[in-house]
């Protein structure tokens, strides 16, 4: 790079507008780790302009959510440097900072210039390359659910809803209530403002069924771009909440007795040559490819639940009658099923995967769901008969804990082929380490009911 102008000319218009007439102070060079946490480094813009790559150790992908380190399944723990290469198309503002800062997501390569296979963004790109080799392009539209909660600085205390502008705590069972959204309107206003400054399009914001639970819908588009947006949105939303003395949490089940938070994934597939949705035929009817994708999801989703529900808390969400699936039934316009076919015209025909929790890494959640559909297209099997009633009345076929989910993940050879064996080995090692840590914790329930009674 020879000058600041050389790279600022390559960034999106929204980032250029943000910097118009101002001097850029800092650049944050970031990547998503296994958990979806932003890792990287910040540096003065005056230094960033003279570098075209940066370095981080590969151990960032071996760290658990608690900060512990997992042994590298592929060899010694030597922590070699990886190369971070800026993807300037991802440059966006960090409008909550005190100075003028841009965030830039970086691609992760080894020292020979090859994509690092354990980097979550690269896992998603790997899956998309398999689609491209067949002449297909997936399209996704994610929904993000999260809770605004009162500040909680003591992990031993339960999470409670935030105080609204009325002076009362947010109430549950107020789905789609506009007055409920207005209770924390200042946080919503900041979310909109930050999103606009970052160049993100929000399709809509609504109140969900939980106390202080909000859903944000994003416009459909390219899976990598949407995963990047969710990665950014999580930080954006947290920062907006902190401005108003509350927390935003993407934990799957933060409040006992309340619904959990999902990342529903709407997905379809476009024929690259024709630009048409392969789920619809010339007369607007459903194609066999559409049914094959449903069958692929039914067959292989159990093996990727460990990616869609990555923590012990994630499995508290899969309970009947709490707006979360307990099995892999499918149905048209049926929200009790794990796989829902929404009402749409032929061009927008799609499958909604309702299994993913909002606590999943967005790159890995999308990669996992798309991997199952890809295998369905290749295997060309037919799904189980459509569920026409209440799917909660059907048998449960979703793993009930992280240990069981990891066992299924380790057994599906086809899924491991699609996602990459090295990634799968690292992911499983990290998650088994986390699960082992959790099992060492003595819970309040155990102290309350077992201490003096057994």
Automatic annotation (TrEMBL):
It holds the Pfam family Gln-synt_C. SUPFAM superfamilies: Glutamine synthetase, N-terminal domain, Glutamine synthetase/guanido kinase. Residues 120-454 form the GS catalytic domain. PROSITE patterns: GLNA_ATP, GS_CATALYTIC. Its cofactor is Mg(2+). Keywords: Ligase, Magnesium. InterPro entries: Gln_synt_N_sf (IPR036651), Gln_synth/guanido_kin_cat_dom (IPR014746), Gln_synth_cat_dom (IPR008146), Gln_synth_gly_rich_site (IPR027303). It comes from the Bacteria. The keyword Ligase applies. GO terms for molecular function: glutamine synthetase activity. GO terms for biological process: glutamine biosynthetic process; polyamine catabolic process. Belongs to the glutamine synthetase family. PANTHER family: GAMMA-GLUTAMYLPUTRESCINE SYNTHETASE (PTHR43785), GS CATALYTIC DOMAIN-CONTAINING PROTEIN (PTHR43785:SF3). This is Glutamine synthetase. It comes from Thioclava pacifica DSM 10166.
């Amino acid at each position: 790079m020879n000058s600041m102008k050389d790279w600022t000319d390559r960034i999106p218009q929204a980032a250029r507008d943000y910097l118009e007439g101002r001097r850029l102070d800092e650049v944050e060079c970031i990547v998503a780790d296994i958990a979806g946490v932003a890792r990287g480094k910040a540096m003065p813009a005056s230094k960033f302009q003279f570098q075209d790559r940066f370095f981080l150790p590969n151990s960032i992908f071996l760290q658990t959510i608690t900060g512990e380190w997992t042994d590298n399944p592929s060899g010694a723990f030597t922590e070699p440097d990886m190369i971070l290469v800026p993807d300037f198309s991802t440059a966006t503002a960090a409008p909550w900072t005190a100075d003028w800062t841009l965030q830039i997501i970086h691609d992760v390569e080894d020292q020979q210039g090859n994509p690092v296979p354990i980097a979550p963004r690269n896992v998603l790109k790997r899956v998309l390359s398999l689609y491209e080799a067949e002449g297909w392009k997936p399209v996704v539209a994610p929904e993000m659910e999260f809770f605004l909660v009162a500040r909680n600085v003591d992990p031993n205390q339960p999470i409670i809803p935030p105080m609204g502008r009325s002076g009362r705590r947010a109430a549950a069972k107020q789905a789609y209530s506009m007055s409920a959204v207005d209770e924390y309107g200042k946080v919503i206003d900041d979310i909109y403002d930050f999103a606009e400054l970052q160049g993100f399009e929000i399709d809509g914001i609504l109140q969900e069924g939980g106390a202080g639970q909000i859903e944000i819908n994003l416009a459909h588009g390219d899976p990598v771009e949407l995963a990047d947006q969710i990665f950014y949105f999580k930080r954006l939303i947290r920062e907006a909440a902190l401005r108003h003395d509350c927390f935003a949490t993407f934990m799957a089940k933060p409040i006992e007795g309340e619904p959990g938070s999902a990342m529903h994934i709407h997905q379809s597939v476009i024929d690259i040559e024709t630009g048409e949705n392969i789920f619809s035929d010339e007369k607007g009817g459903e194609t066999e490819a559409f049914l094959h994708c449903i069958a692929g999801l039914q067959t292989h989703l159990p093996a990727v639940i460990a990616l869609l529900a990555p923590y012990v808390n994630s499995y508290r969400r899969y309970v009947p009658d709490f707006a979360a699936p307990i099995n892999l039934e499918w149905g048209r316009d049926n929200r009790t099923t794990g796989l829902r076919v929404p009402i749409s015209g032929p061009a927008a025909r799609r499958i909604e995967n309702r299994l993913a929790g909002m606590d999943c890494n967005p790159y890995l959640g999308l990669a996992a769901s798309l991997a199952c559909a890809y295998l369905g297209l290749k295997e060309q099997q037919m799904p189980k008969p459509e569920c026409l009633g209440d799917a909660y009345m059907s048998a449960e076929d979703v793993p009930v804990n992280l240990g069981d989910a990891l066992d299924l993940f380790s057994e599906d050879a086809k899924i491991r082929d699609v996602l990459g064996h090295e990634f799968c080995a690292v992911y499983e090692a990290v998650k088994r380490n986390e699960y082992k840590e959790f099992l060492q914790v003595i819970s309040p329930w155990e102290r309350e009911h077992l201490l003096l009674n057994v």
